[in-house]
Design brief:
Elements (H helix, E strand, L loop, with lengths): L7 H8 L9 H25 L4 H23 L10 H6 L2 H20 L2
Length: about 120
């Protein structure tokens, strides 16, 4: 393997570390993106099983999604947000994709379980 190129397993192991020093900027943004997708699927299933509807479900998803990622990169990884373009850039990284995935999963589970 090329020197300086890390395997996906090494990047994944760094997701759980207390130090961001081994992440490149692109790798860290990839981690943020994929964590959002995981959160979207989990919350979509929960919202579909518990028959949550309407604006309340969307608002709670947005708060949880943004909140969990903010805690991850500010407290858990303790990164300097300015290196990545500020807090807003990290908070919105992959948000719309995860929102679309959340809606699809939520609708599928809600329709499958609660549609008369």
């Amino acid at each position: 393997m090329e020197e300086g190129v890390r395997t996906p397993v090494e990047v994944e192991q760094d997701c759980y570390s207390w130090s961001h020093l081994s992440f490149s900027q692109d790798e860290f943004l990839d981690v943020i993106y994929w964590l959002r997708q995981i959160i979207a699927v989990i919350l979509g299933v929960i919202w579909g099983v518990a028959p949550l509807k309407g604006f309340l479900g969307i608002a709670i998803f947005c708060v949880i999604n943004a909140g969990v990622l903010y805690v991850y990169f500010s407290s858990f990884q303790q990164i300097d947000e300015e290196e990545y373009g500020g807090t807003w850039e990290l908070t919105k990284e992959g948000f719309m994709t995860s929102f679309a995935l959340f809606l699809v999963v939520w609708i599928i589970f809600y329709t499958a379980l609660h549609f008369d």
